[in-house]
Design a protein that fits this description.
Layout (H helix, E strand, L loop, with lengths): L8 H15 L6 H8 L3 H8 L2 H25 L5 H20 L5 H8 L6 H27 L9 H18 L5 H13 L3
Helix pairs in contact: 1-2, 1-4, 4-7, 5-8, 5-9, 7-8
Length: 194
């Protein structure tokens, strides 16, 4: 008869996610995971296989909890340009507060600390993140076009890519650049296409 698991997988993955988010992949030891997840090493290796596998699942949990709601802000809004401005202005204080605690964005941290060429699973997750973000921006830009908020010559596909790249930079600098200045940059960025 197999031994019954004494933990809920989603709960321990949240604990692992927070550990990786705070410390990063390389700095997180198996002992850190044992301590934070509250399960023994045997269970970790038996149920998750390796630190890397735990990390991949924790990254997916982060993705679902933190990234998917951002996409929803763009995908489910009835607004065009305003939905984009709202999202970008939402990101500024959130990432700044997180970075002040030393966490940063777990997904962007993965982009900066892992060579996606060396890890196909991480590469796929990061590509999915960028693709879904770009699609969400594209949806908002399509609404903006229908609402007559954009210049006729604006190529919304190219601008969706630009906004995705801009968001990466925004997350990166939000801890060192004044929030008021960043919000002014958001307005300037969007004025280009209005």
């Amino acid at each position: 008869m197999s031994r019954m698991k004494e933990y809920v997988r989603t709960e321990v993955l949240l604990k692992a996610m927070n550990t990786f988010w705070k410390k990063g992949y390389k700095e997180t030891s198996m002992q850190d995971l044992v301590d934070q997840m509250g399960i023994n090493r045997f269970s970790i290796y038996s149920d998750f296989k390796s630190k890397r596998h735990i990390y991949l699942e924790a990254l997916e949990v982060y993705y679902q909890q933190k990234a998917v709601p951002l996409f929803a802000m763009l995908n489910h809004s009835k607004e065009g340009i305003q939905s984009i401005e709202t999202l970008l202005n939402h990101i500024i204080p959130v990432t700044g507060e997180i970075k002040n605690k030393g966490f940063g964005c777990m997904i962007y941290r993965a982009m900066h600390t892992h060579n996606p060429v060396d890890d196909d699973d991480i590469h796929k997750l990061l590509q999915r993140f960028l693709s879904e973000f770009e699609d969400a921006f594209l949806n908002a830009l399509k609404r903006a076009k229908k609402l007559g908020e954009l210049k006729k010559e604006v190529d919304i596909k190219k601008y969706a890519k630009l906004l995705t790249t801009y968001t990466s930079g925004l997350v990166t600098v939000s801890n060192v650049v004044d929030k008021k200045h960043l919000k002014e940059q958001v307005v300037s960025l969007l004025e280009v296409i209005k």
